[in-house]
Amino acid sequence: MTSMTFGQKKFIPTAPDKGSFPLDHGGQCRKLMLFYMRCLRENADDNSACREESKAYLQCRMDNDLMAKEDFAKLGYITERARHFFTPDELPGTVTLHTDEEEWTSWQKRGDPVLHIELGKWADLLVIAPLDANSLAKMANGLCDNLLLCTTRAWDPAKPLLFCPAMNTRMWDHPITGAQIATLKSWGHREIPCIAKTLMCGDTGLGAMAEVDTIVSTVRETLLEQG
User: Matching InterPro entries, A to Z (predicted)?
Assistant: First the structure.
C-alpha cells in the first residue's frame, strides 16, 4: 500500500491597503495588543496608566506597516437633516465630509465606482453617532434612502458596526425602539447605550447619546478585539 501526501499552501492574509486602522490579519502584533488590553482592564480603561504598553503596540504596528495610512478622523458623512446641528466649517480641515448629494454626482456611467460601496470597502469599522429614531427605524427595516443608510445596507457583516442611539425619552420608551435595537444587535452590530441627561428639547431622561469619551473608548476596544 502506498500513500501520498499532498502539500497544502498556507494562506497568509494581509492587511487592507486602505483604512484608518488596518486589521492585523497576520497576528504580528497580537501579543502586544493583548498586553495592552489587559493593562486597560486592570486600570479601569485609563489609557494614561498604559502608555508603555500602548507605545509598544503602536510601534509594532508601525514597524509592520499596520498603522493608519490616513487619520482616524479623516472620513465622515452626514445626512441632510444632520446639517441642522452644525456647519462643515466647524470641522477640522483634515476631515473629509461626504454628503447625500455626492452619492449621485460621483457616479456618471456604468462601471464608475459607487460611493456607498467604496466607503464600505474602505472602512474597517463604522460608527453611527448619533443614530436617531428615524434612521434606527429605517435601518432595522432595511431601508436605504440616503448615503449613510446605503452604506449600512451594504456593510460587510464580518466588520464591526457600532451605533449610538439618541432620541427624546418618549421615543426611547416606545416599545418599538427596543425591538429595533434588538434587530440591529441580532445582526452583530454593537450598541453604545444612550444615557440620561437634559436633552436638546429641555426634557430630562434617557435618550441622550453616550459621552464622546465612551464612544472613543468603545471604538478603541473594538479595534483591539479585532486584532
Answer: CHCH (IPR010625), Flavin_trans-like (IPR036551), Flavoprotein (IPR003382)
Q: Are residues 199 and 133 in the same domain?
A: yes
Structure confidence by residue, pLDDT tens digits, 116-154: 998 898 888 999 999 999 999 999 999 999 999 999 999
The grid cell for 8 is: 497544502
Nearest one of 59, 69, 71 to 28, comparing CA atoms: 59
Ramachandran angles phi, psi of 74, nearest 5°: -75, -20
The H or E element that residue 175 is part of is: helix 175-186
Pair 56, 86 in one domain: no
Active site residues: 201
Number of helical H runs and strand E runs in the chain: 9, 7
The set of cell numbers assigned to 124 is: 474597517
pLDDT digits (tens, 9 = 90+) for 70-115: 443 344 566 777 776 777 777 776 677 788 888 888 778 888 888 8
pLDDT in tens, 171-204: 999 999 999 999 999 999 999 999 999 988 889 9
Cis status of the peptide bond prior to 130, with omega within 30 of 0 = yes
Cell of 211: 459621552
> Cα–Cα distance between 132 and 163 in angstroms, integer?
10
User: What CATH number does the domain containing 89 carry?
Assistant: 3.40.50.1950
